[in-house]
Amino acid sequence: MTRRLLRAAIPLAVAVTAAGLLAGCSSGNTGNANAPASFAATAAINPHPISDLRQGGNMNFPLSQIPQNFNYYQIDGTQVDTARFYLALMPRSFTAAADASLSVDTDYFSSITESTVNGKQTITYDINPKATWSTGRPIDYTDLVATWTADNGKDTSYQASSTAGYDRVESVVRGSSDKQAILTFAAGKNFGDWRSLFNPLLPREAMNSPEAFNTGSVNTFPATAGPFRIRSIAPGKQRFVAERNPNWWGANKAVLDTITFIPLDSTASVGALQSGEIDYYELGSSADAFKTARGIPDIDLRQSLGFQYRHFDFNGANGRITSDRAVRLALMKAINRTLIAQSQLGQITSKPTILDNHLYVNGQKGYQANNGDITFNPDQAKKELDAAGWVMDGQFRKKNGKQLDLRDVIPADTPNATQEAQIMQQNLKDVGVNLVIDAVPSDDFFSKYILRGDFDVTHFTWEGTPFTSSSDGIYRLTPGITLQNYGQIGSPEINALADQALAETDDAKRIVLYNQLDAKIWQEGHSLTLFQRPSTYAVKKNLANFGAPAFGDTDFSKIGFLK
């Protein structure tokens, strides 16, 4: 399962390129009456005090693909897998609880305070005096300077996945000592989501030049600073092992001796769970995986609400049929999102529902429906395609002698993505559109196709973070810079509203602005949200403090096996 994380100045939106897991259920399934109707925004992690746990041991941790870059901020590295193993290895400024509330991560920062100095929003970072990189060098203000420099967008040689927040900063300088950094936003460039900055923080050595940033961490991990450190990376990155950091200064020493991270094809993962080769598996929306995991002895199903959601992306590049906003809006009305949600979630919940917001998910403060008239309405879709000049000519529509053919690029060996494509193919055929499904190698899906804009339509999973600004790079249109707006669709109005929302420091007002922004995103036909996927983890029963984290972070130092 390939997933992209939404990321803005933070790990956000770590785009989840999660295309899906094993085979899906019947598309006519309206919901399993025996499954929960809804899920809670509370973590399901089998919580236990450390005193209940056996010290030592190894956890086999599956990854959805081989990491393309160990630098999370570089566009190839902004993936869900990277964000997750970073929690064991890398510093961050704030940590999120299950309800998405934030607190300073005191393992790394003694305090982080906001103030106004000379009329400018100013953040003072006091770094934990004990915080040290795995090289032995103390974490200091220069690491914050380097992260800001690489991610602020001023030098486009840095292939950053997002510049949100960092591009509003005027300076990051040394404070009263090397262990204090003072960040100042430019006049009139306040940033409401400032807590997203330096989530994560990387060492200056991995960030201080475009070469180091873009390629320096392709095969070698940057210096780390967490309860674990890297022990080894196998040739071809087929697996890598993290070991307990003997120099860890944090509140809790790691319980586990090691964590072995294993890239594993989605079709093999449930079998690996059955055989004991891995200690958990995230089931996504796969009905077959769900049913199989439910029958494995000594396995718990741990479920909660979460940030992941499925969506369709359209390509707005010049020359593409989908560059026409009217066509995109018509296509969106031709797609039966409810049927797709039922097909993917029918075994997991008794009430599959669609998602009608690009910036917030259900259970998150701020969620509301902003889709307006973009609902399943094939008759209206036909009228709008007629009005756009695409008229029926035999089985499909044509305009100026060109047939309305769309190429849907999906990762191979991901049956859920295939099922989504097949439902959409039939929906679009009903309104005279020919959807051609192009299944490409999973490891090439992003790097060779999506990042290069080689598609008409595609679908994958986004995974967000508690920071709404993290999705900025998805919807902002910046000529010459892709960020995470792979289809290059946007407008000056969207950019202006995004700027206004970014600058708003009042939480309630910022939510209002982001919902106004979302309404514009719908009206532009940028992309079509499908459904929010509940976090469903199949986990060994004796593994504690791990599972479905809701909207929060996993504390890797506390993961362990029961005595």
TrEMBL record:
Residues 117-468 form the Solute-binding protein family domain. SUPFAM superfamilies: Periplasmic binding protein-like II. Residues 1-23 form the signal peptide. It comes from the Bacteria. InterPro entries: Peptide/Ni-bd, SBP_5, SBP_5_dom. Keywords: Signal. This is Peptide/nickel transport system substrate-binding protein. It comes from Williamsia serinedens.
